[in-house]
């Protein structure tokens, strides 16, 4: 996507998409969405094809997705492209528009094969593979000939570096949750696309959980259907181009107190590094003053960053600072006492790591968090979220959006559910799925960095939901910046992130200033 629009960022679930389709067909009986989808897919495919002399391979399944695939084949053939379709359906069972698309493809000399020809076809080379097996309606585990076709084309594409374009959603992926559609834990079958052209509106499952690995780049085509897109939409992708807030202007006539104070509480014996990472990030992210309050005060000076002050957590007075609590905190009685004190205070908190685990395991701490009136941001990874909800991490990952919403509602907090396509939500039900980041963030300490970044943005005046959106976006953007510079994703370490965050934060502020 070259230009990001609100329509690209707006996310609709499967049921809403179905309702919009039905309303369109009722209001415009001859809308022929299948023909429109085929034309849109073919137009994109023509931009992607590098070797026109090679045939395009299209997979056509049952249902409207198969109709879309046949319409795509007909459009490509009309423009002189050689097309082979593996037809995994009975075209007589297609809808009227789907059957028209099949007949049109036949009339234009598209070659149709069934799955029995797969082994011979996999010996050939193709200009592109277009996946039109299953769409958003898939509910069962893929097996039999469908499984064989999907596994075969995935292997072929990987071996010969053939671009795979999926129609609407990669076959086998749940468009709502981003998980693979299966009722068999041993079977994970889905098309691994390089790009997905998705219709009517963008879909949450393309951007979280397994979605980012299977959907590739997502291109939205509304097929002329007007979806309910507004600035107040609750379900959106998290992208800086649409942030309707900004950091307060840094005036010449200001001082360190103008940009807030962050206290990081944690650092039990053997885990001091977590607090140091959070504190250094808060410093690089613009907090005016940064303190570390250690449960095990083994150090009182940071040789790399002497700007950070170190104190004993047991003597801490919490007043008007922003507190980041949990990194390397451990599970001692002292940790519980200090956490209880923080939860009972009226200061803004960023609650991470061991603090989350203590809350999950202790009813008194749980109740204190539920009863807070001051703002709190929770930053769990899936296992920490599972402990807080008293379910399994697998259940959290099966529907990440639902889990994040449950947490936000339970604790009346802003929640950042970390992972692929990090979820940001609040008690009002506003939900964002993050667009930045890469596997380089899958390393020890990156969560501590995010917590420190949240603390710094809160200290500079953003509210909790704004802070979470910007912090998560910057955290991922910093990792992307490092990869672009040749650092990672393999071997990227958390301590490399703070300077990159500083760069991305300043660029973000400059871009906003120019835009205004």
From TrEMBL:
Q: Where does (6S)-NADPHX bind?
A: 64-68, 135-141, 146, 168, 274, 328, 381, 448
Q: Which InterPro entries match?
A: CARKD, Nnr, Ribokinase-like, YjeF_N_dom, YjeF_N_dom_sf
Repressor keyword on record: no
Q: Name one GO molecular function term.
A: ATP binding
Residue limits of the YjeF N-terminal domain?
A: 17-231
- Record keywords, A-Z: ATP-binding, Isomerase, Lyase, Metal-binding, Multifunctional enzyme, NAD, NADP, Nucleotide-binding, Potassium
As cofactor, the record names:
Mg(2+); K(+)
Gene3D superfamilies per record = 3.40.1190.20, YjeF N-terminal domain (3.40.50.10260)
Mention any Pfam family matching this sequence: YjeF_N
Where K(+) is bound, by residue? Answer: 65, 131, 171
Name-wise, this protein is Bifunctional NAD(P)H-hydrate repair enzyme
Phylogenetic lineage: Bacteria, Pseudomonadati, Pseudomonadota, Betaproteobacteria, Burkholderiales
């Amino acid at each position: 996507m070259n230009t990001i629009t609100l329509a690209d960022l707006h996310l609709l679930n499967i049921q809403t998409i179905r309702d919009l389709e039905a309303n369109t067909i009722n209001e415009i009986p001859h809308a022929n969405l299948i023909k429109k989808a085929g034309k849109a897919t073919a137009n994109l495919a023509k931009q992607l094809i590098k070797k026109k002399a090679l045939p395009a391979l299209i997979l056509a399944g049952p249902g409207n997705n198969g109709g879309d695939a046949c319409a795509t084949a007909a459009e490509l053939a009309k423009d002189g492209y050689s097309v082979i379709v593996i037809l995994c359906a009975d075209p007589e069972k297609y809808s009227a528009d789907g059957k028209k698309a099949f007949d049109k493809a036949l009339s234009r000399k598209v070659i149709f094969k069934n799955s029995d020809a797969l082994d011979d076809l996999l010996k050939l080379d193709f200009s592109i593979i277009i996946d039109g097996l299953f769409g958003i309606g898939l509910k069962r585990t893929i097996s039999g000939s469908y499984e064989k076709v999907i596994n075969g084309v995935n292997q072929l594409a990987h071996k010969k570096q053939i671009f795979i374009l999926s129609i609407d959603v990669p076959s086998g992926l749940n468009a709502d949750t981003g998980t693979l559609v299966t009722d068999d834990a041993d079977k994970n079958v889905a098309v691994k696309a390089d790009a997905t052209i998705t219709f009517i509106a963008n879909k949450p499952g393309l951007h979280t959980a397994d979605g980012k690995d299977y959907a590739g780049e997502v291109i939205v085509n509304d097929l002329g259907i007007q979806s309910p897109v507004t600035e107040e939409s609750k379900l959106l992708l998290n992208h800086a181009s649409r942030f309707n807030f900004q950091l307060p202007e840094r005036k010449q006539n200001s001082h360190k107190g103008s940009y807030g104070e962050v206290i990081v509480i944690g650092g039990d014996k053997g885990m001091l590094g977590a607090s140091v990472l959070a504190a250094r990030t808060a410093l690089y992210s613009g907090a005016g003053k940064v303190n570390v309050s250690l449960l095990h005060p083994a150090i009182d000076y940071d040789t790399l960053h002497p700007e950070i002050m170190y104190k004993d957590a047991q003597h801490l007075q919490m007043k008007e600072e922003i507190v980041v609590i949990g990194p390397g905190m451990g599970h001692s009685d002292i940790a519980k006492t200090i956490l209880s004190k923080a939860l009972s205070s009226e200061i803004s908190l960023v609650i991470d790591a061991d603090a989350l685990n203590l809350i999950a395991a202790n009813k008194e701490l749980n109740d204190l968090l539920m009863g807070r009136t001051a703002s709190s941001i929770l930053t769990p990874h899936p296992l920490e979220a599972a402990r807080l909800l008293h379910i399994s991490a697998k259940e959290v990952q099966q529907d990440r959006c639902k889990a994040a919403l449950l947490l936000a509602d339970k604790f009346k907090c802003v929640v950042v559910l970390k992972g692929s396509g990090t979820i940001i939500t609040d008690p009002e039900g506003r939900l964002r799925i993050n667009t930045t980041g890469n596997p380089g963030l899958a390393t020890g300490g990156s969560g501590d960095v995010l917590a420190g970044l949240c603390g710094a943005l809160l200290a500079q005046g953003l509210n909790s939901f704004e802070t979470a959106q910007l912090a998560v976006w910057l955290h991922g953007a910093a990792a992307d910046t490092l990869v672009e510079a040749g650092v990672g994703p393999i071997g990227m370490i958390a301590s490399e992130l703070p300077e990159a965050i500083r760069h991305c934060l300043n660029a973000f502020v400059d871009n906003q200033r120019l835009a205004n």
